[in-house]
């Protein structure tokens, strides 16, 4: 089976909105577990249960992109050269971005939303998705602090105060940690139980369900 092609759009977002979900996926991935099995750190059974996923970090150019807190990320591809994707993830920016989204971003997000099987938005990434017209007549959520704003600004979307919301291919999460749990829910069944258990143990992490309750 071909690797899942997973894209992350780079702009000035909160780091955890994107880095958290990436690490959840990477912790149970073939890229991490195959070398560990070759070195004898994990069994071949664990490695064979890993998810096969390739990450693409996408921006208008190949210049480093500075995000919130001053952290810089290097794109791996550009809007023009981005390969076909299965999934796309956007993080939550501040109003200075969502109130003035560059045309190149709006065009890319709109086109890729039609292409991908899954479109993930964490925190105020949901505001970005709404701004470019992706959430009309859909259920969605975003950070609880801006729910009243988006309800007024985008009345054609049914906004819900929820850990995360799924409407077709669109998965929106309420906060950074909600996004981490949302991605863990999505990856369930896409890796084996052995890889899942190792990933959670290695991160010393217990996920929550859609109601915010810890999964035992």
TrEMBL record:
PANTHER family: ARAC-FAMILY TRANSCRIPTIONAL REGULATOR (PTHR43130), DJ-1_PFPI DOMAIN-CONTAINING PROTEIN (PTHR43130:SF7). InterPro entries: Class_I_gatase-like, DJ-1/PfpI, INH-QAR. Residues 51-185 form the DJ-1/PfpI domain. This is ThiJ/PfpI family transcriptional regulator. Pfam families: DJ-1_PfpI (PF01965).
